[in-house]
Structure formats: structure tokens, C-alpha cells
Write a structure and sequence with these properties.
There is one protein chain. By secondary structure, the chain is of the alpha/beta class. It has 7 helices and 9 strands; from the N terminus they run H-H-H-E-H-E-H-E-E-H-E-E-E-H-E-E. The protein has a single domain, classed as Vaccinia Virus protein VP39 (Rossmann fold, 3-Layer(aba) Sandwich). Helices cover 33% and strands 25% of the residues. The strands form 2 sheets. A 7-stranded mixed beta sheet has the order 3-2-1-4-5-9-8, with helices on both faces. Strands 6-7 form a two-stranded antiparallel ribbon. Strand 1, helix 4 and strand 2 form a beta-alpha-beta unit. It starts with 10 loop residues before the first helix and ends with a strand. The structure holds S-adenosylmethionine. S-adenosylmethionine binds next to helix 1, helix 2 and helix 4. S-adenosylmethionine (SAM) binds next to helix 1, helix 2 and helix 4.
Length: 222
Amino acid sequence: MRKEKTDTNAEPFITEVNRECYDKLGKLYKDGKRDLDIIVKIGAWKDFLDNLSGKSILNVGCGAGDASRLLLDSGYEVINTDLSPKMLTIAKEKCPEAKNLVLGATELDKLNERFDGIIAIHLIQHLNRKMATDFFRQTYDHLNKNGVFMLVFTNTCFEKNGYQLEGGAVEGNMIWWNKWKLEEVASLIGKYNFKPIKFYQQKYVEKSCGYMEPFVLMCKKA
Ligand SMILES: C[S@@+](CC[C@H](N)C(=O)[O-])C[C@H]1O[C@@H](n2cnc3c(N)ncnc32)[C@H](O)[C@@H]1O
């Protein structure tokens, strides 16, 4: 029998592995709070809020919902989305007044609304190039004019691309990870009519996943 050649780096495989990975982690995933502390510490969070011209925010790959909690506490309206039903349940507990939807980053077209701000914190490490291209297009389409996009990512957490052990509290948990080059990300976003606001450069690397200065790209829909 002829074997089908299957591209395991295609979206269905990647999403399945990462969904399972975060479903297994659930409450054990604690990096979100520490990552958010860094974003606040370097001033990126304040810059994001200062550039918003309205209250509606979409958080893509919201994880445990720490960033959304902060937004809700400051009077913003939030929609949380995540691929993992388990992470979304946790986000829902933390953000009961938000709308919480199980939705992949490449499925934003299912939403019938536009937002004043969209954030994606440590999400694109889980997207291949094709998925990221789709995600950036949909992000652009779902922002209001002057809407702000804050993209946070790092390339220091894992030493290689692709499928590997996540190495956290769950034994044998596999993850799919993309070590993005900054120029690659900038060129994909650059296809859309975004005006740059500010860029934060990753400064140092620590072994531990979670305590690392991120890259932050912040831009506005022209
Ligand atoms: C590293 S965690 C970051 C979570 C959160 N943004 C934070 O900063 O705490 C990555 C999150 O992205 C979600 N995720 C992975 N692939 C995704 C995809 N294709 N679409 C939407 N969410 C995804 C995971 O389920 C996980 O909750």
C-alpha cells in the first residue's frame, strides 16, 4: 500500500499537539503572570494603553488570562480566545466578565467585530509561517482604524524549532515551537498598513522559560 506523505509541520498537526500540551498544563501553566510583570516593567503595557482610542480588546492565545484580568481591572472590555479549552476554563474563572471563546489564532474571521486593541503575548511561537501570515492578516482586518496591535514573543525559551518535550511539570508533554527571527516577523507584519509605535528589543536570556525579556512590536492600523 502506498503511504501518504504527510507534512507534520502543517497546521492540523501543530494545533493538535499544542492544544494537547496546554490542556495538560492547565493550572500548572504559571509563566503568564511573570511574563506580564516584565511587559509592565519595561513600559510596554503603559504604551499600549496610552495608544488605545477605545475600550474593546481582543486577547489571542490568552492562556490563564492574566493580561485580560489587568485590562478588565482598568475598565476595558475583553474577549479572551485560546486554542486550549482547559486554558480557557482557567481564563474564564479569572475573567468571568470577559467573553471567553475557544478559538484558534487563524480563526479570528469567525468573530463579527472589530477591536480597539489586539494583544498576542507569547502566542506566535506556536504558529508556523503560514499560520502567522493568516493570523496577522486577520488581526489587521479585526482592528478598528487606529486600533493598536501589541505582539510579544521570544526566541529564547527552547533551543530548537519543532516538536520537543515541553519540560514543565507534566512528564512527556510535547510542544511545537517556532524560534522566530525578528526580521521575519517584522516582514510579515510589514505587509499590512500598520504604523509602528514602538519596538522593545529582547535584552538578556535566562534558561528558565518565563523569565526573559521579550521582543515587543507595537503598531497601529493606519
Ligand atoms: C505561552 S502561552 C501564553 C499565554 C498568555 N498569552 C500569557 O501571556 O500568559 C501560549 C498560549 O497560546 C495558546 N495557543 C497555542 N497555539 C494557539 C493557536 N494556534 N491559536 C490560539 N491559541 C494558541 C496556548 O493554548 C496557550 O494558552
